What does this fold into?
Amino acid sequence: MSKHEIEKLDRLSTMLDSNYRIPFTPIRFGWDFVIGLVPGVGDVATLGPSAFLIYKAYKLGARKRTIGRMSVNTGLDFFVGTVPILGDAFDLFFKANNRNFTLLKRELARRPSNES
It folds into this structure.
């Protein structure tokens, strides 16, 4: 996978979880939080881009353990996100996509340089 493709996944993760900042605070949020505010469909709508990040990790040959951790992060984000108010607060602070991208970066960094 090229550096450009990794940068695109980083931008996707950032767009979903931390692209914007609440003024005068260190709290960041993204489209996952905003769309998740829509009852019923918001969390389902953001599941697709989150699953895409996991799919790309799989295609890159990430270990099953890493794919599993990414899936747990996404599952938590989805299921807790469906709970009114509590789920919205959870989405604001958990940032599953940023966590998953960090897991992917670590996975790629652990490989010898001739494999990546």
